[in-house]
Amino acid sequence: MLKKSLIAATLSSLLAAPAYADLTINGFASIKAGVTLDGDDTLYGYDDSLDFKNESLFAVQLMSDLGEKLSVTAQLMGRGAEDFDVEFEWAFISYQLTDEIRINAGRLRTPFYKYSDFRDVGYAYDWLRVPQSVYGLGFDNIEGISFYHTTQLGSFDSNLQLIAGAYDGDATVSGNSVDAEIKNVLGVAWELGRDWYSLRAAYLRGKVTIDAQSAQLQPGVTFGDFFTGLSGAGFAALVNEIDINEEDGAFLAWVLLPTKMTGC
Prior knowledge:
Number of helices: 4
Shape: globular
Order of helices and strands: HEEEEEHEEEEEEHHE
């Protein structure tokens, strides 16, 4: 209900906006191709056949200034890996409380890494794409609220983000897509920059639940089947220990890098 209510409120604001505010429409697209060098290998969705679809995408972003320090933003994206089915990547309302403080509410990008907010915009960094081994966490967005604060701390540029919300959808575990729910997500990301270098740190935590029936142990066999077999053999206590049901989960990352170079 939280997800539907937040997105519905954002869309209602966006659709009503043209009656009294300017609507800005932007877009971008990426066409990417890949192939593995060994017929027996698969990596990040590629095999030994040249594939232009896997990581290609297109997006349209709509933004409207509603006045009174309010604005609304929505981004629709179609990914080749999902047959270019269009979905809302972002949909949020912003309130510019002061020149230094902004509050967003709706579907937001989770601030795991430095380029998480614009990882899909290929011209925003020097790589062909962000490293999948780092950024491929299985999900990118949460439904919730975010607080941004930008200021000067002495000779440092400071960018602080606090975020709270929840996630319910697909995630990736050991290369397998699973149904996941993460409640009570709380996080902070802070970046300090000065002259030629910057320091960034991020920490997020929440209650994680993974649907065992959706997790493949091997083709045709799920973790749920495995857990049922263990319980039937008298190992129900072991199942309770290894089953992921509202378990504490945490994410921590930090990086120090020159501002003229790319980093995570």
